[in-house]
Amino acid sequence: MSTHDLDTAPAQTKYTPPPLLDHPHADVILHTPDNVDFRVFKLFLSLASPVFRDMFSLPQPDPTTVTSSLSDADPGEHAAGRTGSMPIIDMTEDHLTLERMLRFYYPGSNPDMTTCDLEGARKLLDAAIKYEMDELRRFVVESITSPRFLEKDPIGVFAIGCHHKIEQVVLAYAKYTLRRHFEDLLSFKPSMTGITVEDYSRLLQYHWRCGVAASGLTSAFEWIGYERQYRFLTCPDCAAGEKGTDTPTWENPPRKWWVEYMKSAGGLLKSRPHGGFATQFSVYNKHLNTGLECKTCRRKAVKDMRDFVQGFDRKIEELTSMVALNITFQGREDHIFFVTT
């Protein structure tokens, strides 16, 4: 059975470990609660995990009755009828989690995370932390902070980050929330997922501060630079709009059609402070069409707006990355995290 079939295998199908993890010359058996035996090598386990290394360094009892401290299971349930001198270690992880864990450290193999849902990733992370497998821990963290997991179950990712106190996971989720409306976040009840009210409150505060920072760009224009000579800043012909709150000395006020776009963008950014939404063509197109009615603006309006929204995007990301996220983990002091892009 391939790893692609593991998550979708029928319940009645008997799982058989791949040859790599069922080696005839193995020197230890890892037995799972769902009654699967992995015949593997102590050397690989010792190199991967100090927990296993320390276990194997202890004096070993009769190998036919060995049960490690990793599980409370009764070795008699699965050791009866076995022959040979291979020690048996009862594990608490199910066979799918254990296979993924072992594949990560075995030469020429890697766990297939494309078939792994968030619950499977959580179990794998639990195992990596339990057995002090730092490389595997980093691998799982990188996986669950990818768009695939964040887009499908963002709250689940945040819950894992809070539970294990992993800053990288918490920060990835916080950054992802900027793609969602603030009002959507208010309807979530954190107690249903194990996330503390305090942590979720800090997340809401972070989102709100990012909204304030990003929307502020739409009424203060000094960051644009008058010297850029955008036509919507210099046109003398069409209706003028309001000057920016920080640009009272500009020779000409910006054109009204562009100011109206910035007002629209400001409203969007206050609720959803992510540049990819406020700078979409569908958002500014209506205002651009008004600009095209001006004989002066129309000469450069399309090019200028395309150039402008790219810089606008970058500025939004720059400002929101400077907003601090204060998360309090139980048993820790407050930490100030900066969410970088």
UniProtKB/TrEMBL annotation:
Residues 26-108 form the BTB domain. InterPro entries: BTB/POZ_dom (IPR000210), SKP1/BTB/POZ_sf (IPR011333). Residues 63-84 are annotated as: Disordered. It comes from the Eukaryota. PROSITE patterns: BTB. This is BTB domain-containing protein. It comes from Jaapia argillacea MUCL 33604. The lineage of its organism: Eukaryota, Fungi, Dikarya, Basidiomycota, Agaricomycotina.
